[in-house]
């Protein structure tokens, strides 16, 4: 059936959506979320169908196209295109099988990830996939297969080994170890291309904090050049097409704060494999208010990360650290950036807890990458920090990405302050990580 095009001038940010008037849909026996094949000249595109009864959106005889479809088909308002019913993708049957409790094969998970990456599944359908893995879980083979598929259908980086990387699963305000660890490890001559996330529910993500000091939205070709020249980077992973299916899955998970173990492990390891990492250090903070609240779950995650990492050809080491309270002095992008610079500059105001944890983690990576003998990593990390080599490497990274600030006095902090004094002397026994993060976000973090 031929229908006239209406450019709706709206982008979906992913799925390819076409809109029909309900009377046309009824006449063609089409239903919400059906697939339709759209043809214009030699171009063929399969779209997901939405239906409206409003003449103001699309009238009878017209098909509304979102921006992505207009671009794919190369059409303009008023041009006619052919519309035909298309079979739904096989990946939907795989998702249904998972909901029923089946274990999925590498091929089936690959089809699901391919369709997510190519915008062939709607947000609702991806949500069902997320729900199926949350309810039914993923075994180790499924997690490995999901990880491989995420890497396969995205961009990848390739550097001479060893390539180091680290990750914290989060949940602890001020835990800005990455920005201390990366320059230490790079100053020792190891390669460490670090992609990080922005804040979702926390006060600041590593990308938000690094953005105070330098540009973090870096195109892939430029990123390759920076890492080859400087040996390291700290950029926002969302600006790259590394494991893009993971980004769409995370977007669906966020409203309900779902964090299924299998999905989380695949998400982390896919991003590491995509940057070519051969040696990965995972930080799992454990404690009340952290994402992992008890050691039993922490040990289980340790076994899964290390075992699945081995299946993927990566040496993965997991540290279980104290996640019961915030770390560092400041919470929020600028204050956390100041803590990092104080540590790298050897300033007496540097937070001792963040410094100690960062050196411990950097030391472990130095040993994993054979830059230091076993048991000597912390000593080398301390020396690289004390000598100023780590700070100078940080300045190199900042300059390579586009400098904004490299000294604490250059940072723009909030103008309004309030000193809160304790009503009586005593000892602080605990701190609520989530509550502190909420306060910081209410005050404008990470942007403020």
UniProtKB/TrEMBL annotation:
Domain of life of the organism encoding this protein: Archaea
GO CC annotation terms, alphabetical = cytosol
| A single GO molecular function term of this UniProt record | 1,4-alpha-oligoglucan phosphorylase activity
Q: Which UniProt keywords are given for this protein, alphabetically ordered?
A: Glycosyltransferase, Transferase
Domain (Glycosyl transferase family 3 N-terminal) ranges: 94-154
Report if keyword Transferase is assigned.
yes
Name it.
AMP phosphorylase
Organism field: uncultured Candidatus Woesearchaeota archaeon
């Amino acid at each position: 059936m031929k229908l006239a095009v209406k450019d709706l001038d709206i982008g979906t940010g992913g799925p390819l959506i076409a809109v029909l008037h309900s009377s046309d849909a009824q006449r063609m026996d089409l239903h919400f979320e059906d697939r339709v094949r759209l043809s214009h000249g030699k171009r063929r595109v399969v779209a997901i169908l939405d239906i409206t009864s409003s003449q103001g959106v699309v009238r009878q005889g017209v098909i509304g196209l979102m921006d992505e479809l207009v671009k794919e088909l190369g059409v303009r308002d008023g041009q006619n295109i052919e519309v035909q019913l298309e079979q739904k993708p096989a990946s939907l049957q795989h998702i249904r099988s998972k909901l029923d409790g089946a274990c999925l094969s590498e091929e089936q998970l690959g089809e699901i990830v391919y369709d997510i990456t190519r915008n062939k599944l709607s947000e609702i359908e991806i949500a069902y996939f997320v729900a199926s893995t949350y309810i039914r879980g993923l075994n180790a083979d499924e997690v490995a297969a999901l990880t491989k598929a995420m890497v396969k259908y995205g961009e990848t980086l390739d550097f001479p080994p060893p390539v180091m990387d680290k990750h914290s699963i989060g949940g602890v305000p001020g835990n800005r170890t990455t920005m201390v660890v990366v320059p230490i490890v790079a100053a020792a001559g190891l390669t460490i291309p670090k992609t990080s996330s922005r804040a979702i529910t926390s006060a600041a993500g590593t990308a938000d904090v690094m953005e105070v000091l330098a540009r973090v939205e870096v195109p892939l070709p430029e990123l390759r050049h920076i890492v080859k020249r400087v040996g390291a980077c700290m950029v926002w992973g969302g600006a790259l097409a590394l494991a893009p299916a993971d980004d769409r899955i995370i977007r669906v998970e966020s409203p309900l704060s779902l964090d299924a173990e299998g999905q989380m492990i695949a998400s982390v390891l896919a991003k590491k494999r995509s940057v070519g990492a051969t040696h990965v250090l995972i930080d799992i903070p454990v404690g009340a208010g952290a994402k992992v609240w008890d050691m039993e779950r922490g040990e289980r995650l340790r076994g899964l990360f290390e075992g699945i990492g081995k299946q993927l050809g990566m040496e993965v080491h997991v540290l279980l650290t104290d996640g019961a309270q915030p770390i560092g002095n400041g919470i929020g992008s600028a204050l956390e950036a100041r803590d990092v610079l104080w540590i790298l500059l050897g300033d007496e105001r540097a937070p001792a807890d963040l410094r100690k944890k960062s050196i411990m983690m950097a030391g472990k990576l130095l040993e994993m990458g054979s830059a230091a003998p076993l048991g000597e990593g912390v000593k080398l990390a301390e020396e690289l920090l004390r000598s100023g080599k780590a700070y100078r490497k940080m300045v190199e990274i900042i300059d390579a990405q586009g400098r904004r600030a490299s000294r604490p006095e250059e940072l723009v902090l909030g103008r309004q302050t309030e000193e809160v004094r304790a009503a009586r002397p005593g000892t602080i026994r605990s701190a609520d990580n989530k509550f502190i993060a909420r306060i910081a976000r209410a005050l404008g973090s990470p942007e403020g």
